[in-house]
Amino acid sequence: MESLSSNIRQLPLEIKSNQEMVHEAIGKGASRAKVIWTKNIAVATWNRLQCQFGCPHYAKLHTCPPHSPNSDETAEVLADYERAVLLFALPKQDMRELAVSLESSFKSKGFYKAFGMVSRPCDLCETCTIDTFCKYPEKARPTLQGCGIDVQRTVFINGWGDVSPNKPCADMQNIGMVLLD
Does residue 1 register a pLDDT over 50? Predict the structure, then answer.
């Protein structure tokens, strides 16, 4: 009878890589992590309206609309990727920090296009330098919903319907994603 470790060694490299990415994400603080296909990321134009008419961060942060990519631009970007690591963490976890850390780690492992995104607005500066360049471009990341990603639909499509409250940018909605390939 073969051991579990010998069976794992026989798995295709892609599957081992997926498992390793999930384990790394959980080791860095994610409560859940899952490698998903980018075709299972829901992009919608209505999200920007939610930001523009109802969010206090609209036009006040580099990482939010109208400064972030719109849904059409995001759809074009997603076409350059096949997979992403979907992340969920408890509210106390800094998702931006987690996504940036994973992005860096994945780049060092050969996923040179890795790019993180998060569901919460940037909080790196007390007041955003919106009139000039971002002070922390290596750390700041755009919001998923600001880029036109329907977070609730995306997590539902990928089997995580229980982790997404309805209100965008809510503290409880600590969801992130690292695009890769």
Answer: no
